[in-house]
Amino acid sequence: MWTFLNNLLFTSNYISHGHCYLWQRDLVALHVVSDSIIALAYYSIPVSLIYFSTQGKDLPFRNIFLLFGAFIFSCGTTHIMEVWTLWHPVYWLSGSLKLITAVISAYTAFALIPLIPEALVFTSPAQLEIINQILQTEIIERRETEAHYQTLTEASPVGIFYADDAGDCLYVNERWCQIAGITGDEALGKGWLRGIHPDDRESVFAQWYSVAQEQLPFKSEYRFQRLDDGHVKWVFAQSVGQIGENGEVKSYVCTITDITERKLVEEENRLLNETLENRIADRTAQMEISNQQLQSEVAYRQRIAITLLELTQLQNAILNSANYTIISTEPDGKIKTFNRAAQQLLGYSPGEVVGKVTPAIIHDPLEVSKRAEVLSQELGVKIEPGMEVFFTLPRGGMADENEWTYIRKDGSRFPVQLSVTALFDTEGNITGFLAIGQDISDAVATATQRKQAEKELRDLTNALQNAVEGISLLDIDGRYVNVNRAYARKCGYEPEEMLGMEWQLTVHPDDVEMLTLAYQEMLISGKVEVEARGVRKKGSFFHNQLTMVKACDAEGTFNGYHCFMKDITERKLTETALQESEFKYRQIVELAEEGIWVIDNKAVTTYVNRAMSRMLGYSELEMFGRPLWDFMDEPEKQQALDNFERRKEGIAEQHEFKFKTKDGKDIWTDMSTSPVMDSQGNMLSCCALVYNITKRKISEQQMLQLTEDLKRSNEELEQFAYVASHDLQEPLRAVTSYAQLLAHRYQDNLDAKANKYIHYIVDGATRMQQLINDLLAYSRLETRSKQFELADCNAAVNQSLSNLQIAIAETKAVITCDRMPTVMADEFQLVQLFQNLLANGIKFCREDIPLIHIAAGRQDSEWVFSVRDRGIGIDPQYADRIFIIFQRLHSRREYSGTGIGLAMCKRIVERHGGRIWVESQEGKGATFYFTIPIISI
Q1: 93 vs 19, 74, 720, CA distance in Å?
Q2: Is 491 helix (H, G, I), strand (E, B) or coil?
């Protein structure tokens, strides 16, 4: 473990990263600031992702957010390490962190793959918007239906009473309260029993209990005694129990009919009968008359009672018929009751639906979602699909009436008019909701059609008033009869201000004649569309699109026309801006010096600018509609086909291509091609920016030929230099040998002048031989060069020092060297390079002991080497001259040499793709620099 940590934090064998930047302050600061900012940004992103994933409810793919956070955090850490390693070379630690980052990123990538199909199935915002709009419409319609049935219940002449299985009252209508003499709140729970006459309570409850046990309908006559004034009313009561899943009664729906008048008649009849019995002897004739009158009155009263009974039964039939579903729910939407009509129409038993929510059972989820969108738009509050779609308006005390589609148990569907109202307790708290639905599949009755038509008319009127587009109705004289808000506000008026106004006051004076002609055309065709300028109340103008539609009465007589107005001011301004922009850019394209060529997906020319047509010698019209292949020779067509296939794959390229002009000349072009693709990845067109490079190609060919000639000439010159220097060696050695032999044998026989001449011959021949050897070495730099391979510069320096050891020993030169890199080079030539530069430093020394230092450093994409001495220096004006062959700055008496050494250095460096130069001041030493590019293997 200790060894691992020691290796992880070990730094002594490495140099810090800042050395690679040569510790340049600006460069180091640039990297520190940029890496720090990147790390800070990377660290802030995971914090946001973690907060988002932990705070978001029902957030999908929570784990992938955490993985992304870890991945980004680890990326930020690697940038922190980039800053740290500028001073501390902990590269093992840095690499370990990068390995961790790689593992996290790879795991994140693999974890993301199976989540992509799940993400693609999410409903798009556009689909949700459509669903919301449909649901909004349905909710409005169902609210109206619910209000209709609520009104019907409240307006019923029969008292309606709703109780649970324990006899606790849950709901009474207004008529029941009028009959019982207590309020609806007082009747809730067991409070309704207080309204029953004390003498009848026990018997009524006993009879209720008896029929409840046998699950029979309850029918009874009893009395109500008002609590305020003690007034007594007789009622005929009926109730029907709702049977639960376990076969027991779950709740009751009851009706009461006021039969007080009938009871009074019966009581009067009883009293009259008693009176008649007591006075029958005396008033037989009168009794006959009274009896007849009484019988007639009784018959009348009985007819009234029968009528009332039939009306009560009719009301009960309405509430319990198969055409009305009555469903009550808890405040959270769970079903409490499910009447017989609902069972028959939907095919479910109460046990299958009680305790569940209706959208999950009998409603189409798409309808619910659409209604949620519509309701959200109407209220300006986001309504989630679910029971809130049905309960939002009832919670505010309004009935929600809409048309819905019920789904039966067998999957079949039928439309219903659903009315949903809220049920409140005495404190105004919602205790549940009541939904009454009517099957409107066969609703063809005239009254229903009329009401529906009236509703549609009201809806249409409301929609017209609230429409985004302006809508108005004008009479045959051109005066406004009806104007919606949008139309009036676009003109700067309130709707009431425009009634009776002539249309000419809202139109730009210059467009009145045009609209008059459009009016005449509308009378003939029935409809006309035109664009004109409108005038607002304050005098400002705006652009609008008008659609005028002829209006006729039921007999087909023209009685006015509708005008639909859409504000197109923004579009007009945009069109004007686009026209100006198109004109500007068309001018730029047409006047461009570069050719622009557009073809379609069949390689047919659809557009060329003037420069392109002039380039090929055609007119623009001559090139239009012609395929690309018409403008090239046969050998180029295959290449063009290959290029065209790559364009169809969406690949943009820049390449050179040869075309044929109209007069048959070849023209070389440089083309930048870019395809235009549709959403399915098919190419629609391709645009090319074309440059005429014919002159450049001619120059390149001439340059290539010149290069070949020059190369051949250089090879011949090198061969000549090699042959010449080689062939000069033999006669030169003969001259030297015989001169030395002459001096040796006849030295005593010759005078001083003859010896001096012999010395000149030997010295000249020696210098000539050195010059020939140097020239021979110079010529062999190319002919005997080796392929580049990894070469250790340390070894090259050591070899050059070994070659110069005699000169070093004689001059006692001190040569120091930094650690040298390994480069791609010819190692033999590197030895020559270092040897020549070191030899110069030793030769041109101005002190007793030459001091020379060799260094190397990386700079961008190359190594920069330097050889610094403390010699006599060089005047800067001769800095370039010294690298020319045979150029010398000193005489041979001062310093020996041939003037080829530095020329060889330059040629070696240039062969390796580098540069060589000298920086020096006369008398202050010199530093020779050369570069070798870094070549990756």
Answers
A1: 19, 13, 61
A2: coil
- The Cα 387–Cα 137 span in angstroms is 16
| Contact (CB, 8 A) for 374 and 140 | yes
Residue 891, amino acid:
S
pLDDT band at 68 (very low <50, low <70, confident <90, very high): confident
Q: Counting beta carbons within 10 angstroms of the beta carbon of residue 370, is it exposed (0 to 12), middle (13 to 18) or buried (19 or more)?
A: buried
Q: Which has the closest alpha carbon to 725: 778, 685, 675? A: 778
What 3-state class would DSSP assign to 437? strand
Residue 690 CB contacts under 8 Å (≥ 6 apart), including other chains:
594, 595, 596, 597, 612, 615, 669, 670, 671
Element (H, E) at 268: helix 260-279
* Strands of 582-629, DSSP E: 595-600, 605-608
What is the maximum span of the chain, computed from C-alpha positions, in angstroms?
A: 213
Q: Which residues contact 259 (CB under 8 A, 6 or more apart)?
A: 221, 234, 235, 236, 305, 308
Q: Is 782 a residue whose pLDDT tops 60? A: no
Write 886-893 long-range contacts (CB < 8 A, 24+): 892/767
Rounded to an integer, what distance in angstroms lies between the CA atom of residue 404 and that of residue 443? Answer: 14
Helix and strand totals (H; E) in the chain:
29, 27
pLDDT band at 391; cut points 50, 70, 90: confident
Angstrom distance (rounded) from CA 335 to CA 353: 7
Is the separation of the CB atoms in 924 and 918 below 8 Å?
Answer: no
604 strand-pairing partners: 627
Alpha helix locations (H) across 784-900?
793-803, 805-811, 827-843
Phi-psi domain of 32 (left: phi exceeds 0; alpha: psi -120 through 50; beta: other)? alpha
Q: What Cα–Cα distance (Å) separates residue 711 from each residue in 281, 776, 900?
A: 164, 19, 21
Contact 165, 249 (CB under 8 A): yes
Strand pairing report for 249-258 and 169-172: unpaired
The residue among 926, 805, 812, 796 whose CA lies nearest residue 863 is 796
- Helices 125-155 and 388-395: crossing angle in degrees, nearest 10, is 50
> E strand or H helix at 700, and its extent?
helix 694-745
Residues 100-149: tens digit of each pLDDT = 888 888 887 787 787 777 666 666 667 667 777 777 777 777 777 666 65
Using CA atoms, how far apart are residues 868 and 857, in angstroms rounded to an integer?
14
CA angle 503, 507, 510 (to 5 degrees): 130
**Residue 278: which residues within 8 A CB-CB, separation 6 or more?**
none
Count how many Cα atoms sit within 13 Å of the Cα of residue 247 in the half-sphere of its side chain.
2
In this structure, how many other beta carbons lie within 10 angstroms of the beta carbon of residue 540?
A: 9
Residue 211 burial (CB count, 10 A)? 16
Cα(424)–Cα(184) distance, integer angstroms:
10
Look at the block and give the residue holding tokens 């109500």.
224
Query: Radius of gyration of the chain from Cα atoms?
Result: 55
Q: How many residues does the chain have?
A: 937
Q: Which residues, other chains included, contact 54 with Cβ-Cβ below 8 Å and sequence gap of 6+?
A: none
Sequence-distant (6+) residues with CB within 8 A of 760 are none
Beta bridge partners of 692: 669
User: What are the residues whose beta carbons fall under 8 Å from the beta carbon of 627, sequence distance 6 or more?
Assistant: 602, 603, 604, 605
Q: Given its phi and psi angles, is residue 673 left (phi above 0), alpha (psi -120 to 50 degrees) or beta? A: beta
Reported as type and span, the H/E element at residue 527 is: strand 527-535
Q: For 410, what's the count of Cα atoms within 13 Å in the CB-facing half-sphere?
A: 6
Asked which of 406-420, 469-483, 741-755 is least confident by mean pLDDT, the reply is: 741-755
Q: Please check whether residue 304 is in contact with residue 261, taking contact to mean a CB–CB distance below 8 angstroms.
A: yes
Query: How far is C-alpha 12 from the geometric centre of its chain's CA atoms?
Result: 50
Contacts of 461 (CB under 8 A, 6+ apart): none
Name residue 471's amino acid.
I
Give pLDDT, residue 766.
Answer: 65
User: In the structure encoding, which two tokens stand for residue 253, read together?
Assistant: 């729906």
